[in-house]
Design a protein that fits this description.
The protein is mainly α and 184 residues long. The chain has two domains: 1-107, Rna Polymerase Sigma Factor, Chain: A, CATH 1.10.1740.10; 109-183, Winged helix-like DNA-binding domain superfamily/Winged helix DNA-binding domain (Arc Repressor Mutant, subunit A). Helices cover 74% and strands 0% of the residues. The chain contains eight helices and no strands. The relative contact order is 0.10. Keywords: DNA-binding, Sigma factor, Transcription, Transcription regulation. This is Sigma-70 family RNA polymerase sigma factor.
Length: 184
């Protein structure tokens, strides 16, 4: 059933892309709405900063309008789109370091049960650890572990081999285990 849903999503994307490439702004807006949350989520996890993630998401949406003309449909649209998002994030990371780690909430933690406080602290430590990964390892970790993409999809998005994806994922996991060892 999930495969059928994915196929329907891909077919809807293909139809919308064709209309958008013909200049249909409404089809483009629908296409963007379908993918905007994931664009932002990937950017947020890559950059560990909500403001930078929003900037990247907006840049990608603007860039997408002109870039669609170059999309030939040889691969999946989502793979092509995520490559644009990741590349834009990597450019931002190269230009400036992240300003602060991502937190579940910008609000101060509420006083509550010890378990809730510990869970919030563990979550914040995990997000800081992911944010501290080198960009190449973070990209693989976010796309494969958090977004649930296959090794092949990640390899295609990052334009590397599956073996490179597996190696980077291994190094990312080792780094996270070492960084988060005090929480075990």
């Amino acid at each position: 059933m999930a495969v059928e849903h994915d196929e329907l999503d891909a077919a809807a994307d293909d139809w919308l892309i064709g209309k958008a490439q013909s200049g249909d702004v409404d089809a483009y807006e629908v296409l963007v709405r379908r993918h905007r949350n994931r664009i932002y989520r990937i950017a947020l996890r890559m950059l560990a900063n909500p403001h930078d993630a929003e900037d990247v998401a907006q840049d990608v949406v603007i860039q997408l309008w002109t870039a669609l003309a170059g999309f030939a449909g040889e691969g999946a649209f989502t793979t092509w789109l995520y490559r644009i998002v990741v590349n834009r994030c990597l450019n931002v990371v190269r230009q400036r370091p992240p300003s602060r780690p991502i937190l579940d909430s910008d609000h101060p933690p509420t006083v509550g049960a010890d378990d809730e406080v510990v869970a919030r602290q563990r979550s914040a430590a995990t997000l800081r650890a992911i944010g501290s990964l080198p960009p190449d390892l973070r990209a693989v970790f976010v796309l494969q572990q958090i977004e649930g993409l296959s090794y092949q999809e990640v390899a295609t998005i990052l334009d590397v081999s599956e073996a490179t994806v597996r190696g980077r994922l291994y190094r990312a996991r080792r780094h996270l285990l070492d960084t988060l060892r005090s929480w075990s």
